[in-house]
Amino acid sequence: MTPETEIEFEELRPLLFSIAYRILGSVSEAEDAVQETWIRLESTSTEPDSLKAYLSTVVTRISLDVLRSARVRRETYVGPWFPEPLPTDTHVDDHAGLYASPERATELADSVSMAALLLLERLSPLERAVFVLREVFHFGFADIAAAVDRSEAACRQLASRARRHMDEGKPRFEADRRKREELSSRFFEALRDGDLDQLQALLAADVETVNDGGGVAGGVGGRFGAEKAARILIAAVPPLLAIGARLEQRELNGEPGAILRDADGAILGTWTLDILDGRIQRIRSVTNPEKLGHLGPVADLKDVVRRRNRHRRGQ
Predict the structure, then answer these.
(1) Fewest CB atoms within 10 Å of the CB: 125, 173, 193, 224?
(2) What CA dihedral angle connects 162, 164, 167 and 169, to 10 degrees?
(3) Is the torsion defined by CA of 217, 218, 223, 225 positive or negative?
(4) DSSP readout, 68-135?
(5) Per residue in 9-63, pLDDT tens?
(6) Which residues have C-beta within 8 Å of that of residue 18, sequence separation ≥ 6?
């Protein structure tokens, strides 16, 4: 392998990760897929005509193999399943030249949202891979056919079917990023202050709170309505902040959100907010420790909750 090839691989790494993450919904598995792609590049004895096409094919095939086994595990997953949260305020795609315009940036951010990734879960592995390559990254059908080892005609059918399924359940978002950021800031400020009335005013009447704890950390949530949801949030979060926890506002999966850390900075969980029509429609949280390690050291949520409860009792 030439030094030039190594440099080009590093330039393409963000693209390869972006493809793998959208197919897999897992940061750790996507990173492993990119690393395996590098290993296969090192072991090949021929110089590909197009390194981008070759690497995209390899990472897609690896991701498909992983996804097929992952789907079996997800069928027995305890509680709601969400993709691993991905910070997007650092623009992980940018180094591959994927953000050529503000419109393209928005398109890519929407494609990695929790809602979009959950819709992708409804597709077959092949439909998902073809949709990601065609609709998100605008690959030609010849390259897609090579990547998934199907004919171009079959890939066109897969793309059409996948697009139809995605359009049927396409989520609606507040299009104005500034409005989303302002509302989310008000939400987290009200949460920090324990302001029940302000919090309730920001929630949609049928707001849904859903948590992915993997059956080991936290409940599953539900559709409680604005008043009850606000009371649950006030009962849960300000007491954590009182013992040193903090909410770090971040953009996660292209959506306004936050990382909840304990007093030592270890991660307790993440939040993302679905915002539409000036209200928060859905709050998604992830507290499963297996899905948080890529963000940093993970806290023991149960221990923190025990300390919160002792603090409440004045012990």
Answers:
(1) 193
(2) -80
(3) negative
(4) HHHHHHHHT-SS---PPP-B-TT-TTGGGT--SSHHHHHHHHHHTSHHHHHHHTTS-HHHHHHHIIII
(5) 999 999 999 999 999 999 999 999 999 999 999 988 888 889 999 999 999 999 9
(6) 92, 93, 96, 98, 108, 112, 137
